[in-house]
Amino acid sequence: MCGIIGAVTKSAIEPVLEGLGRLEYRGYDSSGISILSNNEIQTIKAEGKLSKLKQRLSVQPIDGDCCIGHTRWATHGRANVTNAHPHQCGQVSVVHNGIIENYLNLKQQLIQWGHHFNSSTDSEVIPHLINHYLAQKMRQEEAIEKAISQLKGSYALGILINGASNNLYAIKQDSPLVISQGNSGAYMASDAMALGADSGKVYYPKDNELIKLNANEIKSCSRSINKKIHFINNKQCTKIVSKGDHSSFMEKEIFEQVDLLKRLSVNNHTSEYSIINFKDLNKITIIACGTSYYAASVAKSWFEKYANISVEIDIASEYRYRSPIVMDNELAIFVSQSGETADTLAALRYAKSKKAQTLALVNVVNSSIARESNFTFEIYAGPEIGVASTKAFTCQLAIFYKMALEAAKQRSFLKETELADLSNNFVQLPYIMEKILQRCSAMKKMAKKLSNYKNILFLGRGMLTPIAQEGALKLKEISYIHAEAYAAGELKHGPIALLDEQMPVLVIAPKNTLTDKLLSNIKEVQARNAPLFIIGDKSIKEHINLQDDEFFELPLIPESILPVISVIPMQLLALYSAQTLGKNVDQPRNLAKSVTVE
Ligand code: AGP
């Protein structure tokens, strides 16, 4: 997703460039800045990585006290310098994150008014509209609000105006925006991760609340009514996260999971979950996207099996268009690592309109989804930089596991001894995970062999079907190998037609109550000469003759925590396959860390 940042401070270009560096993890294809220097706006842009922009700035150093910056993830218009932000018209320069749905009509109107456009972006209409109203002698705030009133769609804007007074403005609708008051300056950004050390206090503006930032003050000035801003402490860590000795953030985050799960399994947050009255719940609906949706799928099994609560899960972009029935005493849980995913935020707003009780399960506590939910549970994963989600997924599962046990306790559905066994499994979890990570070199061999294929089928059963789906997503999103996942029992209902020597099948087969069923699915695969890869325990290996680089052995794992453990080899497989193929593991092509457009 696009990232925006702005600063009003001495040598404002420095915190802006630092902020753009912090936003790189979101994924982007071009970048640029506008700065007020010697009483004029200078705009410098570059295609590709931030280093290209810094190169251009090094040959033409500029400085000033009012600056905006942007990393672009192309939605309208190719990734090139012309389409890069900021977009400028006269004395107005704008950076935008979001989509203006009615930009073509606005562009035609502006062309009729004599405006000329350079780019093929939707965003470029915004500075032209503001400039048009300034030319009609409107005050800066009025011109901005008049322009904004004509936009349909989503936006978070940084607006630089060179006029009688040099001001930076910020305003949003549906896209995330944070304002910060520092000791030596005022700042705005797409997310608090972009803010530097001088950002102790933050404020999250409401939709269409116009914020004016200058050297002396930060004002909320919608419709020229100045409103006092109540800043809160910035909980987002502002230190720059480093890869350490790892080759990528993703690798670092995979190996961080052991300590994170150790902390979650001992740090007894259970009291945190008792604020939810599970006892009287009729239904839980869990809504999410991507990897977070697969966490929801696993959680469904745990809530139903251990707490006897009916659970419905849905993909956020589908949920609100299918007229879902929201019942009395229903809890709608919205799972989102970033807390800014537009599809999930829109689904949350729909559920609230139907009076559902809403709970956000997020990694960023001050995020939009958290702020708009009745309850928020944090997953304590720490900043996740790799676009492919790993540690956030296992932390989501960990919190869901604890919630399911809390629900089981409140509903007295399990015996004390059963609850104790499930809690004990959870305490063992990080130590079993550690053993698997210690055998990561075995997975490198499997990845090397698997990365020769163009297509792969992933099979799982029961609670491991979502893990097969997550494994397929991990592999395809960073290695670009086409991978799709099926419940193993579904193979014979169609996908088996795909099997031949060129269609390998990877089966997740740790010992569990469905192993015998899975074994017959594996035999179906072998009977069609499809290359077979298995992630399972040695009981399976005795039945099937596989090479070392086709079998990754798992220890015996308590059934309740199988999904959390089985995803680790999947993550390693994706990481090493992508490395074998020389892909950019942390910033895969076309992807963004936080998808803030629908
Ligand atoms: C996960 O590896 C992907 N990057 C993606 O599917 C992600 O899980 C999805 O976009 C949801 O993001 P969220 O958890 O921040 O809402």
Task: Provide an overview of this structure.
The chain has 598 residues and is α/β, with parallel strands linked by helices. It folds into three domains: 3-233, Glutamine Phosphoribosylpyrophosphate, subunit 1, domain 1; 245-438, Glucose-6-phosphate isomerase like protein, domain 1 (Rossmann fold); 440-598, Rossmann fold (3-Layer(aba) Sandwich). The protein is 36% helix and 21% strand. It is built from 18 helices and 24 strands. The strands form four sheets. It has an eight-stranded antiparallel sheet with strand order 3-2-4-1-10-9-11-14, with helices on one face. Strands 5-6-7-8-12-13 form a six-stranded antiparallel sheet. Strand 7 (155-161) and strand 8 (167-173) form a beta hairpin. The protein is globular and about 80 Å long. The N and C termini lie close together (11 Å). It binds 2-deoxy-2-amino glucitol-6-phosphate. 2-deoxy-2-amino glucitol-6-phosphate binds at residues 289-292, 336-338, 341, 344, 387-389, 477, 594-595.
Record keyword descriptors for this entry.
binds 2-deoxy-2-amino glucitol-6-phosphate, Rossmann fold, 598 residues, alpha/beta, eight-stranded antiparallel sheet, globular, Glutamine Phosphoribosylpyrophosphate, subunit 1, domain 1
